[in-house]
Amino acid sequence: MPKILVVEDNPGMRKMLVQALTEKNYDVAEVADGLEAANRIAAEAYDLIITDLKLPGLDGLEVLKKAKENNANTIVIIITAFGTVENAVEAMRQGAYDYILKPFSIKEVYLKIEKALSQQSIISENIFLKEEIRSRFGRLIGSSAKMQEVYQLIEKVAKSSSPVLILGESGTGKELVAREIHERGARKDKSFVPVNCAALAEGVLESELFGHEKGAFTGAVSQKKGRFELADNGTLFLDEIGDLPLNIQVKLLRALQEQEFERVGGTKSIKVDVRIIAATNKDLKKAIENGRFREDLFYRINVVPISLPPLRNRREDISELMAYFLQRYNKELHKDIKLSANTMGILTAYNWHGNVRELENVIERIVVLADKAVVEPNDLPKEFVSGASEAVSKQKGLLISEIEAIERERIRGVLEQCNYNQTEAASLLGLKRTSLQYKMKKYNLIKDEKGKKDV
Ligand SMILES: Nc1ncnc2c1ncn2[C@@H]1O[C@H](COP(=O)(O)OP(=O)(O)OP(=O)(O)O)[C@@H](O)[C@H]1O
Ligand SMILES: [Mg+2]
């Protein structure tokens, strides 16, 4: 039974709230001033606090502050008189969940409380408080259907030695996937050798790949093995292959076809057994049309293509990734920073054109810069917060729909996983069965008689 604290100095109003909430089966406590509220909050954990702004002792904003210091997950709803909306907005910037304007109907109070509590349960049970990160595939995080497909492909190709071409926007995890394929295959005890084809000048690249003999060119003072040789029996990762100069493409093609090559300045053929994984964020088909990429090389490397979806097309993964990076950087920096529900809402709704790398960088920056325990929307870097008060209400709107979208996806995924066995799904989600049924109804996730789910 959720525990609610009512903080209100007007006795009539307080009695009315307490009675109405008790009727709805909440466990309700009441206090008449801010100081007493602070004492109660320190002594006992409440799921939700509904407080007047103007109070004797401490005011509502200070009650809010105490509540958040004590437990960042406590939901605080502010009651305020019409004409003091500015204060309500300020309260929301400081972490209040919502506000109610006087005069209000008790129905409005019910609705806000129900909504707040249902969101809180999903945030705390399923996203934040879980230490372990769900559905981790090796080093890869994300349980969206799109990533599950990627994991299956990785599993399959890891068993073979066929060339793999990993495609995807910058920051989607191409290198991580390449390493995962290597780790899961028979070559895992041999080297994984990466070459960044875009980072090296044309002249250097050839000798980097194939090595050189002593005296092959000015500066070649001794013989040097290339990456192909270093990767013998292991995996060669040709990163940014779309940027490979055409004359090196010819040499690479030959090396791939024959599995043999000569060092620069050498005549002896060197035989190797190398598995090739290539990656690019370029459109190779277009590069072929423009004469910048050889078609024959494309067919050689594109035996098994794996496309990594951009993060904005698998938003379900954002909260998991956020929790993961937050945990990681907290550990690394010996901090314990948390994100408020509003902050998570904003980050989840963001477009992440730099994909997982951008998300990782933003979380790292947040953890490095945070000087308080709970990061609120106005602590975020500028690109996430625009304007003041009207932005807050806009973010609020985003937050609710976004969290609902996350929640629906998560519940749907688990239900499918359990074949719609509600007892099992409820236990996996950490929800009561009745709450699950309520949410299934709310999100239209009930199976119909034909055994097809109604979505
Ligand atoms: N699914 C994921 N789970 C955890 N971390 C990830 C995931 N995807 C990417 N990352 C992290 O994001 C960062 C970028 O990943 P990676 O370097 O593999 O991207 P990329 O696709 O090779 O990008 P680019 O094209 O810019 O080279 C890395 O720090 C990586 O660890
Ligand atoms: Mg990369």
3D structure, described in words:
By secondary structure, the protein is an alpha/beta fold. It has 3 domains: 3-128, Rossmann fold, CATH 3.40.50; 145-307, P-loop containing nucleotide triphosphate hydrolases (Rossmann fold, 3-Layer(aba) Sandwich); 313-442, Helicase, Ruva Protein, domain 3 (Orthogonal Bundle), CATH 1.10.8.60. It is 48% helix and 15% strand. The protein is built from 18 helices and 18 strands. The protein has helices at 11-23, 34-43, 60-70, 85-93, 106-128, 145-158, 174-183, 202-210, 227-230, 246-258, 284-289, 295-301, 316-332, 341-349, 355-369, 389-417, 422-429, 433-442; strands at residues 3-7, 27-31, 48-52, 75-81, 98-102, 136-137, 140-141, 164-167, 192-196, 211-212, 224-225, 235-239, 260-262, 269-271, 275-280, 304-307, 338-339, 374-375. Strands 2-1-3-4-5 form a 5-stranded parallel β-sheet, with helices on both faces. A 5-stranded parallel β-sheet has the order 9-12-15-8-16. Strand 13 and strand 14 (269-271) form a beta hairpin. It binds adenosine-5'-triphosphate and magnesium ion. Adenosine-5'-triphosphate is lined by residues 140-142, 168, 170-176, 281, 356-357, 360. The site of magnesium ion has 3 residues, from helix 7.
